[in-house]
Amino acid sequence: MDREIILEISGLSKEFAVKGRMFPYKKEMLKAVQDVTLTLEKGETLGIVGESGCGKSTLGRLIMRLIEPTRGSVVLEGENLTELSSQKLRKHRKDFQMIFQDPYAAFDPRMSIKAILEEPLRTHGIPKEQWEERITRMLEMTGIPLDALKRYPHEFSGGQRQRISIARAILLNPKVIIADEPVSALDVSIQAQILNLLKDLQEKFQMTMLFISHNLASVQYVSHRVAVMYLGRIVEIAPSDALYERPLHPYTQALISAIPVPVPGAGIQRKRLTGEVPSPIHLPRGCAFRMRCPYGDEACAGKVPELTEAEPGHYVACDKYKSAEVIHEI
Amino acid sequence: MKEENNIENLLEVRNLQVEFATRQGHMHAVRGVNFSLKKGEILGLVGESGCGKSVTANSLLGLVGKKKHEKVTGEAWFHGENILDKPEKEQQKLRGNKIAMIFQDPMTSLNPVLKVGRQVGEVLEIHQKKKKQDALEEAIIQLQKVGIPSAKERAEDYPFQFSGGMRQRAIIASSLMCQPEILIADEPTTALDVTIQAQILDLLRELRDTYKVAILLITHDLGVVAELCDTVAVMYAGEIVEKASAGELFSHPLHPYTKGLMACVPVLGRKEKLIPIPGQPPKLYEEKAGCQFADRCPKRRPECSRDTSLLEIAPGHYVSCKEVGRIG
Amino acid sequence: MKEFMHRFLHNKLAVAGSLILLLFLLSAVLAPVIAPFDPYYMDSTAVLMPPGGKHLLGTDNMGRDILSRIIYGSRISLQVSLVSVSIATAAGVFLGVLAGYFGKLTDGIISRVIEIMFAFPEVLLALLIMAILGPSLNNIMIAIGIVYTPIFARITRGAVLTVKESLHVEAARSIGVSDFSIIVRHILPNVLAPILVQITLSLAFAILSEAALSFLGIGVEPDIPSWGIMLNNGKSWIEIAWWVGVFPGIAIALAVLGFNILGDGLRDVLDPRLRNVEN
């Protein structure tokens, strides 16, 4: 099979300046995303999973260049997005689109669905004759009734709104879609509808998608590969089955173990992660996970472990994953 | 379930109905809910947003039904008294004392300008008229018990200095101060990360084992229910549609809605395609006879418009769906 | 829009305010038709006539009919307030959008200038500008316009700051919509409500300011029938002919009241928190 790399992210980092708690005049750096390197192949869904504050949403916005990266580059089909002028960037935006978590807030409440869907077409100079046909086709594909066009966002349920925002995102045939927690704001029975829609669209059009979520089960459901983030860094990337069947990083193992499954009594015997996530302002030296890690020791404080290929296509950022103590359960 | 005072049952709720008069019209949020809670039992009330599960909990505490546009009817028997009938003063004495509540959002449940220790101890000042200093000392002991490290120092912190998980621990500590017999936990882990959620679920389980406190857990997450609950009641559109022990419910779900919920949530390691429940949950403004789920149900039949009382299909397993009742 | 009209018509304040203002608007438009006398005509045989009879509200020291002058005065008052508030709105909203949307240095400079202008009492600032420009009808409109610019700039800046951070603006940016389109299509419509309320309130204050400046003798030319000039004139005769000053005073109070309660009403009508809970 032809493996064509569409999106190449290398060394992407973002630091936010925050006021120090002890000395408000002294600026401290919050390291939200650190040195993230990823590639997306054409027609692939890559899942990004992590807990709140791990930098996954910041990563999405960095790739979209909704916020400016501190370091690193995002290359979309040979074009370095991080170096484009804002004029040129605007023109290129039709190639990478975002689906937001809160489908209500993502729409201007004063605009009708028609106006909302026409905006991307107008912005990118699509001839007016094509608008109606394109919009109608999108509505059919995303399962929105045609009479929705003259109505307003508040008249729709959360699931319908998310369908509309998916329609808006794919209207311009983007090369990459970034979905930031697209189902987290929805009710459980509606989540499945949206997950299936994304999965179907992805398969039908060979869409390339970055799917960001805190929920590993839904990430795994839609993604071919999954990257696990912890405190701004990617600690493990693997094909989605391999990640679940043989998680190598102790954090991934703990994350999987913490997810409640609908099997009574299954959770009681599990090992638990102790402590809480350290502050991204005062990161521990070396591996950021070592204080909570059952296998962490002095050696882990030495340097930040690098992502290394443990098995074909399975990368892990832990120096200990090979040693006997890291038992692969499950 | 018929006898007047079942000794075993700590709390017995009968035909609970909650109605609201809203701008959009009359809303029948809870439509005749029955359940009981034994000492040391964890009962899960599962359902989607708007199914009436939180309203049910709030009405038990008397937090709903006080205003002109709210109406609560039915009975809730606790120690031989119907607590729904009690005057506000007496209900107040129960709240946070014998029946305590934990809310979803650990950010807003704490007063941001009050030190954590003081806040946790406050219930003792209110319910047991204890002195500030004594209350604080007991608060520190309780904070230790719920797993807050160096509780003595942390008690002097303000809520914003606590992480989300620590805040939820502090709230649990304050709910335990008066040794309640019933703990009502409304989505206690929804705002937390999974690794922290696992810790809080462990803590709730420990509390039940140590203090034999009964817990009414309100959640939308079947995983959480399976993890923690002894008994499960599934709510849909203001009614309980299925009720069984957790083991029974997860191994033999009967109601099409329960089955639908289980099939539409992605589970780690499961490959099958999700089967979404078509349509939307109903808004509770209209009164419709018969099964409320019928519109979305794959097994719908004309008979579904008849009564929806719970039927005991297997010992302890109740279901409102007459279709499965007949087949089973 | 339909909902807005419905809520507007059910708001007693808004309707009452509009009715009062409608009265003034009609008198301004129809002044030549409804005024019983020429406002400039001096009847030397009827000086300081008390109210009643031929001159419904009496005459002033030069024998001019007070009712007619008040009717014509509404033209001046409305003209001054409308023009000056238009100037203030245009300039203030422009500056506010610049400051709020682009931030950084632009915001720093605009915000400092606004603060300096706020540090002066309004009348003092207007006096200063009038002293430079010289008294005339046009100049007073410019002066009042400048004086009211900072309040619009500040309100707009605050509203823009909030809306700018909202997800739908970020979504528009992610589609590639230009800054100009974002401002015109997504930000301005969403900051309109507070600006609209401020416009009505400022219209009231502008009438007062014109009256105050004219009263102080540095407003419009003294022969023009402005309410402020009439009030100024009235003060000299207050002991022997109260009507010369009192009726223009009532006119000012009524017009200001009209704009004020309309503003309060609009604030309620436009407040999203008071809107029907949507879904």
Explain what this protein looks like in three dimensions:
Chain A: GO terms for molecular function: ATP binding; ATP hydrolysis activity. Chain A: InterPro entries: AAA+_ATPase, ABC_transp_ATP-bind, ABC_transporter-like_ATP-bd, ABC_transporter-like_CS, Oligopep_ABC_C, P-loop_NTPase. Chain A: Keywords: ATP-binding, Nucleotide-binding, Transport. The complex is a heterotrimer of chains A (330), B (328) and C (279). By secondary structure, chain A is of the alpha/beta class. Chain A is built from ten helices and twelve strands. In chain A, a hairpin with a 2-residue loop joins strand 9 and strand 10. In chain B, the strands form two sheets. An eight-stranded mixed sheet of chain B has the order 6-7-8-3-9-10-12-11, sandwiched between helices. Chain B contains eleven helices and twelve strands. The two termini of chain C are 19 Å apart. Chain C is mostly helical and 279 residues long. The radius of gyration of chain C is 22 Å and the shape is elongated. The interface between A and C is medium-sized, with 27 and 19 residues.
Q: What is the overall number of helices of chain C? A: 11
Mean pLDDT of chain A: 87
**Overall pLDDT confidence of chain C:** 85
User: Strands across the major sheet of chain A, in which order?
Assistant: 6-7-8-3-9-10-12-11
> What's the architecture of chain C, going by CATH?
Orthogonal Bundle
Query: Strand fraction band of chain C?
Result: under 5%
Largest sheet of chain A: 8 strands, mixed
> Stretches of chain C where pLDDT falls below 50 for ≥5 residues?
none
Order of helices and strands of chain A: EEEHEEHEHHHEHEHEEHHHEE
CATH superfamily of chain C: MetI-like
What fold name stands as the CATH topology of chain C?
MetI-like fold
For the largest interface in this structure, which chains are involved and how many residues does each contribute? A-B, 42 and 46 residues
In terms of DSSP E residues, the strand content of chain A is 15-25%
